[in-house]
Specification:
about 100 residues, alpha+beta, five-stranded mixed beta sheet, globular
Length: about 100
């Protein structure tokens, strides 16, 4: 299996470094991440500066995802996050406002 889940309540995918060899298929990984409704974040394996640039360019095709870079030098990793549906954000904001009033 290519994914390593993290602790609940937010399930995250971290790609196994052994699977991150030269044959790493970023598009297939992104599509698998999007198809998995139980995961909201994914950490990509170590990529070169050029590969990170290519990854960010590819991610422009997926507006439902955001991408952040964490770490320094060789520990730098791209992390993908699924965007919260607009309706869900509004419901959450309304719930917080209702709690503050009560």
């Amino acid at each position: 299996q290519h994914f390593l889940p993290c602790a609940p309540p937010v399930r995250s995918l971290a790609l196994n470094m052994a699977a991150a060899a030269a044959s790493f298929d970023l598009r297939a990984s992104i599509e698998g991440f999007l198809a998995d409704a139980t995961c909201s974040t994914m950490e990509l394996p170590r990529l070169t500066t050029g590969q990170r640039k290519e990854a960010k360019k590819l991610l422009e095709q997926f507006p439902q995802l955001t991408c952040e870079s964490f770490g320094l030098a060789e520990d730098r990793r791209l992390h993908l996050f699924k965007a919260e549906p607009q309706g869900a954000a509004a419901v959450a904001a309304a719930a917080v406002a209702a709690d503050e009033i009560a």
